[in-house]
Amino acid sequence: MSLALFDLTGRTALVTGSSRGLGRAFAEGLAGAGARVILNGVDPDRLAQAAEEMRASGFDVLTSAFDVADEAQVIAAFDALDGQGVEVDILVNNAGIQFRKPMLELETKDWQRVIDINLTAAFVVGREAARRMAKRGRGKIINIGSLTSELARATVAPYTVAKGGIKMLTKAMAAEWGELGIQANAIGPGYMVTDMNAPLLANPQFDAWVKGRTPMRRWGLPEELAGTAIYLASDASNYVSGQIIYADGGMISVL
Ligand code: GCO
Predict the structure, then answer these.
(1) Among residues 58, 68, 76, which one has the least CA distance to residue 19?
(2) Which atom of ligand 1 is nearest to the CA of 188?
(3) CA-CA distance, 137 to 177, in Å (whole number)?
(4) Where would you tag: which of 66, 145, 205, 247 has the fewest CB atoms within 10 A of its CB?
(5) Which of 159, 191, 231, 246 is catalytic?
């Protein structure tokens, strides 16, 4: 009985920003638990490559190329899924960018671009998914936060503000959509080995800081987030909403 709670067979998951990085790891994890996954990104060729690789692993994969920061493209993508009879049961709002620059040097356009992609897009994609989940009386939304949902680090202000907003957007979704049968939660990854963090991994001082600041004394691997995603996407979390779960090697819990 208990393992069946984590079975995603018959469910469809849309994972934004999933042709690589954490999004790809989420997609593979959910597919491994039985879900059909819809990969999303802005580059159709990269999406097709990722889909081919996942299908070669025996996974049931669709693709939907759209820019999460372009509301018209988001609405058109959901309308297209409606037309194909594809119902999104699980949404992982993963797409995001990083932009590292001290605020005194930061241009407003660069601030706005990070907020648009990392926060506002999660609202827009979430709203489109929830409008359809509400009609079915059930749905799972998993927003991807960050250690910077709680703590600030110098030179990543727009990312920090966006990820802090993700934490509160998750609670707002829980507040409004609980009665519709939708659970909204978030995952807060720690310092993970990703392309986005390549400059940090290549910096010996930063690498030493992460390892010293993390109780597990290492960076996390994207696939180590899959279990938390499966839990929040499954019936195992049907009475959990508004929460953010940190998969960070213990970093957020210690001085
Ligand atoms: C940075 C990193 C972080 C991590 C992650 C930590 O520049 O500090 O990019 O933002 O990626 O968000 O949880």
Answers:
(1) 68
(2) 13
(3) 10
(4) 205
(5) 159
Task: Render pLDDT for 74-115 as a digit per residue (tens, 0 to 9).
Answer: 999 999 999 999 999 999 999 999 999 999 999 999 999 999
Pure H helices in 137-203: 157-177, 198-201
CB within 8 Å of 9: residues ≥ 6 apart: 34, 35
Helix (H, G, I), strand (E, B) or coil at 49: helix
Calpha distance 143→94 (Å, rounded): 6
Domains of the chain as residue ranges with CATH: 3-247 (3.40.50.720)
36 within 8 A of 60, measured Cβ to Cβ: yes
**Ligand 1 atom closest to Cα of 146?**
13
Angle at which helices 21-32 and 226-233 cross, to 10°: 60
For ligand 1, mutation pick of 22, 94, 98 (most atoms within 8 Å of CB): 98
Which is nearest to 93 in space by CA: 156, 21, 186? Answer: 186
Q: What is the 192 CA–ligand 1 centroid distance (Å)? A: 8
246 is catalytic: no
> Which pLDDT does position 201 carry in this prediction?
98
The candidate with the shortest Cα–Cα distance to 66, out of 44, 50, 46, 87, is 44
For ligand 1, the distance from its centroid to the CA atom of residue 251, given in whole angstroms, is: 12
Percent of the chain with pLDDT over 90: 100
Q: Is 134 helix (H, G, I), strand (E, B) or coil?
A: helix
Ligand 1-lining residues (CB < 6 angstroms): 98, 100, 146-148, 153, 156, 159, 189-191, 196-197, 200
Q: Residue for token digits 């949902």? A: 149
Distance CA(99)–CA(29), nearest Å, equals: 27
